[in-house]
Amino acid sequence: MHQESKAPSGPRYSLIRIRATWDGTGSVEEASRALGFSRAKGYDLIRRGEFPCRVLRIGRTTRVVTASLLRVLESGVPEYNRTHADRNTS
Length: 90
Known about the structure:
It is built from 4 helices and 3 strands. By secondary structure, it is of the alpha+beta class. The protein has a 3-stranded antiparallel beta sheet. A hairpin with a 2-residue loop joins strand 2 (55-58) and strand 3 (61-65).
């Protein structure tokens, strides 16, 4: 008996697949792969406040906001989290 998969076919990190299968947030590892770099590079960018998508820190867990990731993938324009950049430098 053949069963259809509910997940859309196509590339693992396509916009359609991310919209269909991700919740409101995703892991740093998965978001980093969708953006084309490694997990280690993703965490490095988060530490520097330069990850191209909005991130949430919940206790010791860091999650990437799916809507932000989709906007970045669609437009190619980063939405820096600016964790460090927003500090007053005066």
